User: Which sequence fits this backbone?
């Protein structure tokens, strides 16, 4: 089929190098095993540290209001659009996250509160690295937890799209031995010029190069370009009336949905969003954070709607490097804090519940007298997803140095 | 640490001993100091080049201390001598040269102050307010105006790149002009090392143009804060950035205040206002929330309205980043308590009004006057001296010397620079009071800089890809907003890094599957003259005789663009492509087949070899 040109190009090499070092696309072509009915994982990183206490509000916690005189979200009893959306009598959603309310009550959405990294760093880039590598406190880790979770899995899919980051580069989360690809813009994911010359020329140059770093990168890129030729991103129509927000986040989610529906073998997708570092004028019911949360809620809800029945195999999980101070600062914003919240959404999720060991927000309960304390390690949440959903049982490899005891899972997923 | 250095270099020779180095008190591994082919004294003179040939050394210098070779550069340096060229580069410390004059004069905003920019290209929301319409209405109004202008210019036959530029919203134009200036300087200036350093510091002291008022403040920041100090003393640069409206706004320090002092100030202001109103007793005072209508007299009354109740207090954003990113480094030994007290030292460092009167000013009224202790040192001078002394402590800390030296070595030598080199640079940093030029000199006069391992070890960032390709092609640029946009597509939109870390400089970030595609497409677009606002004359560059001879065209492109530093695999692969009918095309009116030189050049500029410097 469409491998013919490549096989022709490189057929000389096949005999010499044999199966073990054979390019992935050839192995695929020979084995020709599609990977049907696979579990998919979508990971969102909210860069800059989202204010989890205003995202999922502990409205029954009196100190929440005492510590945040101008940015707190009013209690649900105050009613209407201007208040917390009550979820369980203690926690509620920021009103901008209204699109998530139905997902929660349909048991598709679970929330983990007071979750985070045990490392005390309040440095964005350290904390992001620690969360992405999955090894808090260890700066030397060079690969990401999501990449490792693929490395240790039986190779079911040899797709060039097995792991995709939607953005101009590969995040640490996906860096490592297992092949992963960055897609800056699905609509532009093709090579210019006459394919015979440009693709042929570049592909063989990168296939032949002795430059170790660039060799594999080139090969994976051209495989992906080839596979994507059958897609038509310009004319993608979301289904079930889903409307994605017109933001970078919305665009990425839509591209993920499109690739998932195309059955190109994507198992894990990564996207990130920014703007969460609100030191000044964070706002309450309205304002900077409210706008970003509106984008978040609308995007997740559209994604769920668009995928329809396919959500049965999809888990979406969000994270952010740390939370923000329990008290607001001198500029109606919040500074770098500690614990945060995570959203877990999808068919396999036991939703409709806020999973937490709530640490409280009174004096003596706050971490270092200023931040929400971490009572759930983020690796326990991710560990459960990696094991139960992706099917990787070797959590010691994925999260080295962390005893990820399945007996201690929060049991956010059904099985 | 010495042992680590030995192990790092033991790959070069089996025998590892230490020998004293002539020009520094420190030691370097002997295998780098003495072994290898010596270059002619006149050419390299005191440069410790032992592992590279003359041509390699010149290419290396052009790829590291400049943005890659332009046609004729290698020959020129060979003639003048490498050390002389390097010393010239080290001595440039400011300004633009003749090679650039014409180019920059087209970019009018470059010479404007922040006030002028705010006046000429006002923030859309403020204009909307003045016109009494909503921002959305104003946006639509502008869109219609611009569309009409676009039609008009199209009819006049203006070039598309120029039209895009002329119909840009004002604030975006400021940014595009700055981006173009930076690109042009990197392509054309003879003061290459100075340009590399200016961009290094603008990235180290990152400010994101997309944050509010920073769009109007960034030009002044680059022009007057960073560039004049790029080769000077680190502490000057640190203090200048700390006082710059752009940084004060970006990392929120302009709003940081001692909460108690702020309340006192508010109380005093209120009292003064009451006294002032007493003088004008009888005048009607508007009630809170009631706005007076029209007229200059009413404006005066508006000033007498009770201020919006607002508390201001400490903001620790800048206090943290100045230690973590700008000076000590994340492992620099500070604690959360140090972050807070550093921020307290810097209270009162503010801006008069970011969108009206964007000047730095020290407001003693909101400064925290209590004693503050940062990393064991107490600051109790009062006033601005608290901040200045605290910054002085940071600028002269050994942790800062290490952190900055590491970043420089990572930029110029390799992603994991030899520790011994970083140590020697850090020593020089401390001994020279943070003299940037002296630290660079130490680095350049180190054998590690010229080692075989460092040669072509760095992967280019998107900016480096774009500029080095432009230099290789001897590109002519007019106004090219598309060139600016391509940097965004390749993942490095200029002055738009959101986190304060700035863009990474290491291969792990820039080399990945998928992202590579945009580099290849960029090379093709540029070389085949499909980038509006730019042009390259490949007939002139590769020679007339190459225009009908594909083999000659390819071999010249490889020589010119890569200095002949190309693997046999790449060469053979490219030679195979030459037989494709796309490469050699006949035109209807001309029986002679012409080489598609753009395609050949594009393939060479997209080769694995060109991704490295």
Assistant:
């Amino acid at each position: 089929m469409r491998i013919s040109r490549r096989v022709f190009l490189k057929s000389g090499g096949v005999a010499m190098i044999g199966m073990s070092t054979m390019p992935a696309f050839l192995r695929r072509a020979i084995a020709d095993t599609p990977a049907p009915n696979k579990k998919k994982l979508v990971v969102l990183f909210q860069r800059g540290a989202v204010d989890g206490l205003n995202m999922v509000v502990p409205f029954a916690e009196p100190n929440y209001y005492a510590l945040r005189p101008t940015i707190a979200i009013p209690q649900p009893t105050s009613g209407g659009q201007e208040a917390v959306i009550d979820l369980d009598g203690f926690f509620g959603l920021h009103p901008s996250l209204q699109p998530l309310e139905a997902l929660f009550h349909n048991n598709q959405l679970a929330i983990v509160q007071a979750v985070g990294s045990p490392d005390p760093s309040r440095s964005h880039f350290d904390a992001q690295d620690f969360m992405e590598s999955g090894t808090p406190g260890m700066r030397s880790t060079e690969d990401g937890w999501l990449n490792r979770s693929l490395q240790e899995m039986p190779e079911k899919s040899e797709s060039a799209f097995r792991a995709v980051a939607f953005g101009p580069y590969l995040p640490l989360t996906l860096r490592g031995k297992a092949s992963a690809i960055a897609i800056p813009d699905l609509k532009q994911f093709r090579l210019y010029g006459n394919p015979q010359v440009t693709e042929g020329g570049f592909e063989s140059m990168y296939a032949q190069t002795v430059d170790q770093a660039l060799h594999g990168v080139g090969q994976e890129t051209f495989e992906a370009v080839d596979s994507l030729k059958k897609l038509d991103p310009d004319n993608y129509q979301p289904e079930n009336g889903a409307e994605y927000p017109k933001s970078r986040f919305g665009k990425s989610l839509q591209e993920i949905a499109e690739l998932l529906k195309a059955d190109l073998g994507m198992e894990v997708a990564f996207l990130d969003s920014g703007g969460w570092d609100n030191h000044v004028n964070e706002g309450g019911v309205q304002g900077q954070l409210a706008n970003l949360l509106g984008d978040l809620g609308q995007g997740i809800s559209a994604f769920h709607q668009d995928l329809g029945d396919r959500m049965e195999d999809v888990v979406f999980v969000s994270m952010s490097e740390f939370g923000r101070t329990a008290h607001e600062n001198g500029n109606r914003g919040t500074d770098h804090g500690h614990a945060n919240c995570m959203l877990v959404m999808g068919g396999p999720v036991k939703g409709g519940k806020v999973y937490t060991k709530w640490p409280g927000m009174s004096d003596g309960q706050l971490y270092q007298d200023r931040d929400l304390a971490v009572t759930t390690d983020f690796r326990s949440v991710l560990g459960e997803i990696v094991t139960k959903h992706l099917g990787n049982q070797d959590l010691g490899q994925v999260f080295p140095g962390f005893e990820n005891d399945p007996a201690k899972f929060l049991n956010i997923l059904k099985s | 640490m010495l042992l680590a250095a030995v192990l790092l270099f033991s790959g070069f020779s089996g025998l590892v001993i230490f020998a004293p180095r002539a020009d520094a008190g420190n030691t370097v591994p002997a295998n780098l100091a003495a072994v290898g082919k010596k270059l002619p004294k006149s050419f390299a003179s005191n440069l410790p080049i032992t592992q590279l040939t003359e041509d390699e050394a010149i290419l290396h210098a052009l790829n590291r201390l400049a943005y890659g070779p332009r046609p004729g550069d290698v020959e020129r340096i060979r003639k003048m001598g490498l050390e002389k060229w390097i010393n010239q580069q080290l001595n440039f410390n400011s300004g633009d040269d003749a090679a650039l004059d014409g180019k920059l004069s087209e970019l009018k905003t470059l010479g404007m102050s922040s006030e002028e920019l705010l006046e000429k290209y006002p923030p859309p929301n403020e204009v909307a307010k003045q016109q009494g319409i909503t921002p959305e209405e104003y946006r639509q109004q502008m869109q219609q105006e611009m569309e009409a202008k676009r039609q008009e210019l199209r009819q006049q036959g203006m070039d598309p790149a120029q039209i895009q530029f002329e119909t840009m919203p004002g604030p975006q134009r400021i940014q595009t002009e700055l981006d173009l200036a930076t690109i042009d300087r990197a392509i054309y200036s003879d003061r290459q090392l100075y340009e590399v350093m200016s961009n290094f510091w603008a990235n180290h002291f990152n400010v994101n143009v997309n944050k509010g008022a920073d769009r109007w403040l960034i030009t002044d920041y680059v022009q007057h804060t960073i560039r004049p100090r790029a080769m000077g003393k680190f502490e000057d640069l640190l203090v200048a950035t700390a006082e710059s409206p752009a940084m004060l706004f970006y990392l929120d320090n302009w709003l940081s205040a001692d909460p108690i002092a702020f309340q006192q100030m508010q109380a005093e202001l209120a009292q003064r206002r009451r006294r002032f109103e007493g003088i004008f007793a009888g005048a009607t005072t508007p009630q809170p929330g009631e706005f007076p209508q029209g007229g200059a007299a009413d404006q005066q009354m508006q000033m007498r309205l009770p201020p919006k109740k607002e508390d201001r207090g400490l903001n620790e954003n800048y206090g943290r980043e100045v230690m973590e990113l700008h000076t000590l480094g994340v492992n620099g030994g500070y604690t959360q308590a140090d972050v807070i007290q550093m921020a307290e030292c810097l209270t009162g460092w503010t801006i008069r009004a970011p969108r009206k009167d964007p000047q730095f000013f020290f407001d003693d009224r909101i400064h925290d006057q209590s004693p503050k202790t940062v990393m064991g040192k107490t600051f109790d001078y009062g006033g601005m001296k608290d901040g200045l002394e605290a910054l002085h402590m940071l600028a002269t800390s050994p942790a800062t010397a290490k952190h900055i030296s590491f970043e420089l070595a990572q930029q110029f030598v390799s992603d994991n620079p030899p520790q011994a080199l970083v140590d020697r640079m850090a020593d020089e940093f401390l001994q020279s009071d943070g003299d940037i030029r002296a630290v660079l000199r130490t680095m350049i006069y180190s054998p590690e800089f010229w080692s075989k391992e460092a040669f072509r070890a760095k992967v280019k960032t998107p900016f480096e890809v774009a500029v080095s390709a432009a230099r290789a092609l001897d590109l002519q640029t007019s106004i090219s907003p598309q060139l600016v946009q391509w940097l965004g597509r390749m993942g490095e939109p200029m002055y738009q890094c959101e986190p304060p870390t700035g863009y990474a400089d290491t291969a792990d970030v820039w080399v990945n599957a998928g992202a590579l595609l945009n580099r290849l497409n960029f090379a093709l677009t540029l070389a085949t003259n499909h980038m509006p606002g730019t042009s390259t004359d490949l007939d002139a560059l590769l020679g007339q005789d190459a225009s009908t001879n594909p083999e000659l065209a390819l071999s010249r492109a490889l020589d010119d663009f890569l200095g002949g530093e190309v693997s046999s695999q790449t060469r053979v692969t490219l030679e195979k492509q030459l037989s494709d009918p796309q490469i050699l095309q006949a035109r209807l009116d001309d029986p002679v087949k012409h080489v598609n030189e753009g395609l050949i050049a594009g393939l060479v500029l997209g080769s694995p070899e060109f991704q490295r410097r």
In short: The first strand of chain A starts at residue 40 and ends at 46.
